Amino acid sequence: MAGNHVGFLVNCLILIRTSDVNECLQSQPRVCDHKCIDKPIGYSCECNKGFEINPNDSRLCQDVNECEKEFPCSQLCTNTHGAYKCSCVDGYVTHDGGHTCKANSFCLLIYSSGSHLSRMC
Asked: Are 41 and 28 in contact (CB under 8 A)?
């Protein structure tokens, strides 16, 4: 069979993907720590209230220390996981939804004797 060549004809079909894969539906491992937002290309992660995106890994959320950033309490603030708690120093109680403090007793009499100022509560 001299002179006969066996040849191949290849037709390539290039498929262009027109629909996005929803990475947010991936169950294991979870794509985002809290909320996954599907986008036309890719995804983004969002965190629940009281949390923020971890600067080292945008898929993870970390607790926000509201006591350092917002100063939400009039006296004492304790950061908790995803929130905070306000409290008051001795002699005061929380007021107006727990963010402010007011004295729990009132002085009835303030008197002065020369250079000394005293109170009677």
From this structure: no
Q: Which domains does the chain have, with CATH numbers?
A: 21-63 (2.10.25.10), 65-121 (2.10.25.10)
- What percent of the chain shows pLDDT beyond 70? 69
25 backbone dihedrals φ, ψ, rounded to 5°: -80, -10
Supply the pTM of this predicted model.
0.62
Q: Which phi and psi angles does 2 have, rounded to 5°?
A: -65, 140
| Burial (Cβ within 10 Å: 0-12, 13-18, ≥19) of residue 59 | middle
Show the tokens assigned to 40. Answer: 């036309």
